[in-house]
């Protein structure tokens, strides 16, 4: 859903950035200037663009510099301050926020929205400059032989500079350069919460008045909630959804009995499993858990599949594709799979030696799965060594609001609660639990997000609370 593509014109390549950096503005300095693509999509109207030069490595200047792209959406009316929006991924650029300006404006009225592309993504310097260049065969995505040449470069010293800690230094440089002394809120979602916390631990910006963490990741050193265990996390949430159906008379009646039994029947019967999109019901139903509207269709889809009817499943698949289409307009947001691979293997995999046989054996008894564990196999050879920032807690925190769904199949509530326990000695941390909330609550539960974020910005009091997905 967050791998975004946009065919933009009027882009130019800066000589200092090397191949692969596109920037939609015409300024030779690092100051903000009108974005040349601002008139090409309503979402970009009035936006300003800038790029800042930073070292690829603070300890190896011979490796050169990175160009860091940031887009600003000025406040509507007098500006009260800034909100820095840090995207997930880790291969996702800031353009995933562009279609969400309406809830963002509502949550942060009067604030400038500052949206950077962290190193390796979007219009910032890319991990594979030639292969991820806008004018390469696959554009900013990889295509054909680009996969091989790009991934073969991941063992090079330059590739090792694309770490979370170096990205944290980038974020501080951007915030200090463009932040000034006005009120500043720092928001991160998913992997963005990991980057925000790393920044506050190893490279705190000059001013941060409040932090909002949406879908908070578990502690870095978790051994049970890392990416290699993602299928177990997805399955636990999926079974909660099925259990809620089993507790509802109408839902049970729709299935003629237990939802768990219905799901097991579809998974175990090759004929029924083949009716699910892709012929992989565990992966398909796992994907539906991310979206409340499609998640609610699971009982009806199961009932139809057991009757030999794939139409509701195909309808849900088409709805997901249509939903994702709104995020496919921006060229800069093509997901950087090399960066995902590098950071996932280096910092978010507790089992670097995990094998396909292990992954398959663990998935055998699950009803819902994720493709991520299988994608980690063999990635350890490209990993960079973890630095002193790994699992380091910030020494001091401004007020922090955590927004977490209790049906999040990516960053589970238990992991967020474990992370909060580590953060509390450094400052005030409040948790708002979104009942029925999945991942990325700004997107999937905007009403809860807007109400909670707006109240927090106004008071800086991160109290405990609950909200429910409509």
From TrEMBL:
GO cellular component: membrane
InterPro entries assigned to the protein according to its UniProt record, in alphabetical order: AB_hydrolase_1, AB_hydrolase_fold, AB_hydrolase_sf, Pept_S33_TAP-like_C
GO molecular function: hydrolase activity
Residues of the AB hydrolase-1 domain: 85-252
Coiled coil spans: none
Signal sequence, renumbered to the chain: 1-22
Name this polypeptide is given: Alpha/beta hydrolase
UniProt keyword list: Hydrolase, Signal
SUPFAM superfamilies (alphabetical): alpha/beta-Hydrolases
Limits of the Peptidase S33 tripeptidyl aminopeptidase-like C-terminal domain: 396-459
Organism this protein belongs to: Caulobacter vibrioides
